[in-house]
Amino acid sequence: MYVTTLCKRFVQAGIAMAISLSAHAQQEIKIGVIYPLTGAAASSGAEMKSALELAVDIINNGAKSVPNLPFSEGGGLPNLKGAKIKLVFADHQGNPQAGATEAERLITQEKVVAIVGAYSSNVTATASQIAERYKIPFINPESSSASLTERNFKWFFRTTAHDDLFVHNFFEFFKELEAKKGIKVKRLAAFNENTLWGNETSKLETKLAAERGYDLTKVISYPAKSTQLTSEVQLLKAAAPQVVMQSSYLGDAIMAMKTYKELGFSPDMILANNSGFTDTEFIRTLGKDAEFVITRDVWSLDLAKNNPLIKEVNDLFFERNKINFTGNSARTFTGLMTLADAINRAGSTEPEAIRKALIQTNIPGNKIIMPWKGIKFDNKGQNVYGSGILVQIIDGKYNTIWPFDLATRDVVWPMPKWDQRK
């Protein structure tokens, strides 16, 4: 047992030394990134990959049009003599085992100093376990399953808020909707995919509905890779909820909306839990059939009125990719910028030094593109300043409708019936 433990320590020490020597010798800092570049979530993965590439280009080469953004002067990381960041991409295909395998490859073969990923909560769970074992920092910009920061990990850091907060936001919205708009919501349904993210969301929604006196008429969990949702939607329609709270990745989100229309299912509102409902392809594919859906989010372009940095960086993203940021890609950009800040403050590529710098992170809200108070991690690796908003699709755009003091448009309620839409 002693020999095994000693050997493991030598392997970890060797990896750390190789990482540090490689970075300083080549003036290049290799960061591994694990995202769904193929498979059902490939569209989302592509947008997040583009966000990472923009962040690295700003750090390495500068962006004079956004002087208030950290590293906008370019030239690499100043505290490491201008060392440039190089991203090493890995495709997890939406498969947790593939995510774990790729994490190990990035650490042991590519000698990355840290890992960023992995969007899908169930993949983040397995990939971050590998990083924890090898003592390599793992930055999670997007995955929202609350349990990810309840594992007593020391090397896991999440910049986004999580579903415990987001689901609480749903019920706060219902309460304020009645108090401030005179709209009373009582009958709910939960319709969620059945991986870690969707299952945890269902449990939270069930718990809060009971605690707050709502009638949860139906809870449906469907296979994440379903090819049709007809029977599930028929069950929803029979339950007759006012609001369907839904957690779906892109393919299922589009399929669900098409099925709602085909079967004439028209609740007062679809209240979505981000993900597929905020992907650029959602509106592009559905067109007018995407209208009026409300989804929780963490970013919206219309909030640039409160933080000019949002529009300034989005303009750079649009110039390169001809699309705007989404809540997903904006969070991915922010995650990598947070990691770069920590590596620079550490002045080292040694994993323990980066981990300590991440623990000490305290980035103010006016230095990030998210509508948050900033980024600061608690002892579980969770950003305590992450927060959520609700946006509604109106005229083909996402408009902030809650919190009401941040709203740029009034909420449209209820959604028009399918046969009453123009």
TrEMBL record:
<feature type="domain" description="Leucine-binding protein">
    <location>
        <begin position="28"/>
        <end position="394"/>
    </location>
</feature>
<keyword id="KW-0732">Signal</keyword>
<feature type="signal peptide">
    <location>
        <begin position="1"/>
        <end position="25"/>
    </location>
</feature>
<dbReference type="InterPro" id="IPR028082">
    <property type="entry name" value="Peripla_BP_I"/>
</dbReference>
<dbReference type="Pfam" id="PF13458">
    <property type="entry name" value="Peripla_BP_6"/>
</dbReference>
<comment type="similarity">
    <text>Belongs to the leucine-binding protein family.</text>
</comment>
<protein>
    <submittedName>
        <fullName>ABC transporter substrate-binding protein</fullName>
    </submittedName>
</protein>
<dbReference type="InterPro" id="IPR028081">
    <property type="entry name" value="Leu-bd"/>
</dbReference>
<dbReference type="InterPro" id="IPR051010">
    <property type="entry name" value="BCAA_transport"/>
</dbReference>
